[in-house]
Amino acid sequence: MNDITFYQRFEADILAGRKTITIRDKSESDFKAGDILRVGRFEDNQYFCTIEVLSVSPITLDELTEQHAKQENMGLDELKEVIRGIYPSEELFYVIRFKINKGLLMSFEDNISHNPIKWLLGSVIATAMTVSTGMFFLMQYINSTNNETLKNRIEHFSQMEIEKESVINKLNNENQILKSAIENKKIVLDEINKKYNLLESDYERLKNEKTKLIKNAPSKNSSILTRIKELESQKKKCSAWVHPSSISEQEKIDSCNQYNLDIDKQINDFYKSLQ
Asked: Whose CA is closest to 38, among 105, 91, 113?
């Protein structure tokens, strides 16, 4: 396992001794002078050398000098731009000065000639570790992607569930309003039916009473005949005074006759109404 990593583009400068410092934030500053560190590439974690830490000192971006840039094998402006790109929100950094530990660094040819079997086994193990590490990071990336996709789907379905609940609540409210309206209409219809039944009952009652009145009422002719009889009974007998002896008696006869004439006239009128 490597103790510190560098971007692959710095590997050649480190191995050639052109890059002798590295500037890190606080999370990678827990080194001290004399520490021996295995160095690997950041991209694939492949080991490529061993370094010895010479010193660790704090520094700010404004305190960087051309000397620091030279030790990084780049210009000062370029160095500041690289640091800002890697640590955009940091203010305090640490300069780690180091040198290649040549006692632990072997060239490719030295490794083969010194112990080819050991080199071969080491290469196989290193390759296997590199592949395993690569697979690990690949699986982490896939899991991260899948988790993000799953998270998005869960959020999407959660939002759909919320919208569904909202629609259901809205429909339930509308359903309650409709039920209330139907109940009110039902009450109104019940009142109308009651009034109709009362009117129908009154109509039947009046109809029966009319029938009864018509059935029990005396006929028109019978009433007229009865009235004629009554008038006939009211007529007076005026023939007793055939030869009146005085004017007063004559007046009485005339009055009686006139009375009877009036009654006869009424009787005639009633008879006419019977025709």
From this structure: 105
In this structure, are residues 257 and 241 in contact, taking their beta carbons and an 8 Å threshold?
A: no
| Phi, then psi, of 72 in degrees rounded to 5 | -90, -5
**Residue ranges per domain, the chain?**
4-105, 220-274
Please list the alpha-helical segments (H only) found in 104-115.
108-114
Residue recorded with tokens 């009686």? 256
**In the chain, what are the helix, strand and coil shares in percent, each to the nearest 5?**
70, 15, 20
Q: Supply the residues annotated as catalytic.
A: 19, 22, 72
**What angle do the packed helices 247-274 and 220-234 form, to 10 degrees?**
170
d(CA 100, CA 52): 6
Name the CATH topology of 4-105.
2.30.130
| Residue in the structure block whose two tokens are 């009375």 | 259
User: Which distant-in-sequence residues (6+ apart) come within 8 Å of 6 by Cβ?
Assistant: 14, 22, 39, 40, 41, 42
DSSP alpha helix (H) spans, 38-115: 66-71, 76-86, 108-114
Q: For the whole model, what pTM was predicted?
A: 0.40
The closest alpha carbon to 8, from 33, 48, 42, 54, belongs to 42
Q: pLDDT digits over 63-105, tens only? A: 999 999 999 999 999 999 999 999 999 999 999 999 998 765 4
Q: Retrieve residue 38's tokens.
A: 């295995």
Q: What is the DSSP string of 83-145?
A: HHHH-TT--EEEEEEEEE-GGG---HHHHHHH-HHHHHHHHHHHHHHHHHHHHHHHHHHHHHH
For 7, the enclosing helix (H) or strand (E) is none
Report yes or no: 48 and 4 within 8 Å, Cβ to Cβ: no
